[in-house]
Each structure stands twice: as structure tokens, then as C-alpha cells.
Design brief:
Blueprint lengths: L17 E3 L6 E4 L4 E4 L21
Antiparallel strand pairs: 1-2, 2-3
This protein binds zinc ion.
Zinc ion (ZN) binds next to loops.
Length: 59
């Protein structure tokens, strides 16, 4: 089980030019906008995982 989560797009500029930042621990750098950011796992939501696939969400 890894805590690593790889973002697909930069949350700031939306580019895909992401590389792991040297500080590690979920840190990434975007070479398109030259920003560094960090992803952090905050924990599971208290409401738990939804298991119903039906529902009235207009699927
Ligand atoms: Zn960016």
C-alpha cells in the first residue's frame, strides 16, 4: 500500500508536465508553470464508501 498518488494534471495550470519534486512525500513540480505542490491524503470520509449504484443521481 503506497501513499503515493500521481496527479494527472497540474491543479494550477492544467498541464500534464508533472515530475516528482525532490522533497518527495507526494510533492510534485509542474514544469509548465514552474510551481511545486504537494498531495496529501487526509483520510477517509466519515460517510464511508457509497455502495449503491442505483439512486436518483441521474446516472
Ligand atoms: Zn502547472
Amino acid at each position: 500500500m503506497s501513499e503515493r498518488a500521481a496527479p494527472f494534471y497540474c491543479p494550477y495550470c492544467g498541464d500534464e508536465d508533472l515530475f516528482p519534486h525532490e522533497t518527495g512525500h507526494g510533492a510534485w513540480e509542474c514544469r509548465a508553470c514552474n510551481r511545486a505542490f504537494q498531495l496529501k491524503y487526509l483520510g477517509l470520509l466519515s460517510r464511508g464508501v457509497r455502495s449503491d449504484t442505483g439512486g436518483g443521481d441521474g446516472i
